[in-house]
Amino acid sequence: MALLVGGWFLWPMMSTSSAGPDEKAAPALAGDDIRENVEARPTGGVGHLVATMMARDVAPGKDQPTPGTWATKKTLVKGRGASLVAVKVNTAEEDAWTTELPGDICAAAPYVTVDGRTAVAYKGGTNKDEDACDHLVMFDLDTGKRLWDVTIPWKKSFLDEPTRITLTRGVVVATWWEGTAAADMRTGRILWTRGHAKDCNDTQVQGGKALVVSNSCALSTTDYRDVQYQVQRLEPRSGRAVWSYRAARHVYAHIVSSEPTVLAVEAGQDEITDLLSLDEQGKLRATVRMEGDHYEVNCDPERGDGCAGAIVTDDHVYVVSGSTSANLGNDSNWIVGFDLETGRSGVKFEAGPDQQLHPIRTSGSRILAVKEGTDQVAPMSLVELDPATGEERTYFTFTLPPGATSGGGGSSTTVVIENGKIFFGNSVVRGSGDKNLPKAQWMAVGIARAGG
Asked: Which domains, ranges and CATH numbers included, belong to the chain?
């Protein structure tokens, strides 16, 4: 199972929280801040289903995009085609609300505000292009209410690059191959736009605590690999560059975290070779070598919301190792912390025999992860990793319903942890069964500690 992490998920920060005794009290945040809940400390136990979401009418052999997975105390929310759909948490698949959009959803923000809002982009069909991903919508996760709907100056490019959207405090930002635009989170008013210039295009935007953009410049008209990346931290409401970091020629740069800024780079290979930490002026602080396939960090350009296998705290980046065995059902891995100031390795968390750890997001100074058995027998578990003590603590163990994380079309699973619950959501589902009676397909599932 491929697990996506990031945003919320890395979710991506600190509103209502149940901090442990070793956590410093977080300052009060405004509604426009990005949510980063600190979860209550683990108590152990067994998990049970608290939310299920099914797609019941997908034609056999056809793929149905189901972008975005968000959760609050009350609802589990997903996109499906041109709809936003929600079920109530702690019920037997009881619908909460459905909001229809004028066009299919084409991008979903990975973050949620403290007061429970997020954003999607949909195909509005302006520019006389049915695939124009040119509308942004901000909506409330508990009610489905559309708070505003605004058109962005989307333009078609010769490359089939997806639109990506993100949130940072008070601002929604969308980027596509031909430009970037920012909208006020409360009103939808366009604050600034910028287009491509001199063969340079914005390729990734990362929100959360700050706003960082990766810009790619083509240096040759005949060799697509001859590029140079510039990473910029932007002032969210003006689009002004606070600092710029220029990578070496032929080095591809992906944004792992906006604050502190951490980059994953491909230097001469089609895989991540190094992690780079930058300081508050955009200067290089430290380099962490990936040592070939010793560590497993994967950056999907179409996601634009961090890299799987790397989780960033205030002073460390935690990286997943490669598997220790190629034998079927006997894989194990570990997570290692690297200091952002020195690049030196520190605490190490071993998954143990026949198990693997998948880090999902931070919770204060700790890391939330899924532990998964590789022997097809052991249950999964939601665990907390504490770098201060090197200890692992279990929230609860659980088993997913058969097929709950399958999707088809090469899809992956987004994992969200909120309010003591873990949610798995597919980004696409594939229909099966008879054309007159298609089988129900899992879109998302939520699990919490029984009796918790």
From this structure: 3-449 (2.130.10.10)
